[in-house]
Write a structure and sequence with these properties.
The structure is a single chain. The protein folds into two domains: 2-41 and 149-196 and 222-232, no CATH class; 44-146, Alpha-Beta Plaits (2-Layer Sandwich). It has helices spanning 16-26, 58-73, 117-132, 149-178, and strands spanning 2-5, 10-12, 28-40, 44-55, 79-93, 96-112, 136-146, 182-192, 220-232. Strand 5 and strand 6 (96-112) form a beta hairpin. Strands 1, 2, 3, 8 and 9 form a five-stranded antiparallel beta sheet that branches. The chain is of the alpha+beta class. The radius of gyration is 28 Å and the shape is elongated.
Length: 233
């Protein structure tokens, strides 16, 4: 746990002679930036998967993607996405637009609790690759260890409470220093989520049984930063 004081205490006291009435009515305002950090071990392996098909008929592309989709869902793994598109395969050649067959694409983001679960996904894809050959391609274009929203929120809530305690201590300190009664007027929070770790595993799967690389699970830093404003009278 780190406690970081980011900005120098800004203390504004209005001159008594020139603004005595303003001071009496509005009081003295003090602001400070407080920050709390916590190291947390990521609990979710995020895998971004893109599947592409190339067929002569539009319905064939849809059927292949539907078959893969049904099989992947049968793993009962948490995922996002699953949106797909099918469009005519066209290109420009010597100034003319040429078309042949149809392309389909579907993308998923799997959120895994165990590293070994990725092997089940790749084994299924490898099986479909053997079945459909050049009609099917897939790529894992990014994997990263992330902190789930649930765990991140838990950590952020704890850090917010610590900032409240520090704000109270700060209010008492300033009250003694100024000989006034200082109350917390505002605590403006800003949470910073950890940056993902990007790892690129092999795209081609040659064995029937797949054992994908295991990304290192490194701690992520969750930070909550807040501006605290006091009003002293």
């Amino acid at each position: 746990m780190k406690r970081v004081l980011l900005l120098v205490l800004l203390l504004i006291i209005l001159p008594q002679k020139l603004n005595a009435q303003s001071c009496e009515e509005n009081g003295t305002r003090v602001s400070i930036i407080l920050e709390e950090e916590k190291e947390i071990v990521p609990d979710t392996l995020s895998i971004n998967l893109r599947i592409s098909v190339l067929t002569q008929k539009e319905v064939e592309a849809i059927n292949i993607m539907g078959e893969i989709d049904k099989t992947l869902k049968g793993l009962n793994l948490e995922y996002k996405g699953g949106r797909y598109s099918v469009y005519e395969n066209c290109w420009w050649e010597k100034g003319e637009r040429r078309c042949s067959g149809y392309k389909g694409r579907v993308e998923y983001v799997f959120l895994l609790k165990e590293v070994s679960q990725q092997n089940k996904i790749f084994e299924i894809l490898n099986g479909f690759k053997e079945k459909y050959g050049e009609k099917l391609k897939f790529s894992i274009y990014r994997t990263d260890w992330i902190v789930s929203e649930k765990e991140a929120k838990k950590a952020e809530d704890k850090l917010r409470l610590l900032i409240i305690e520090r704000a109270k201590e700060f209010s008492e300190t300033v009250s003694k220093a100024l000989g006034k009664n200082c109350d917390i007027e505002l605590i403006d929070y800003q949470a910073r989520t950890p940056h993902p770790l990007y790892i690129y595993p092999p795209r081609a799967m040659e064995k029937a049984t797949v054992e994908a690389p295991e990304p290192k699970r490194e701690e992520k830093t969750i930070t909550v930063r807040a501006e605290v404003k006091l009003k002293c009278k």
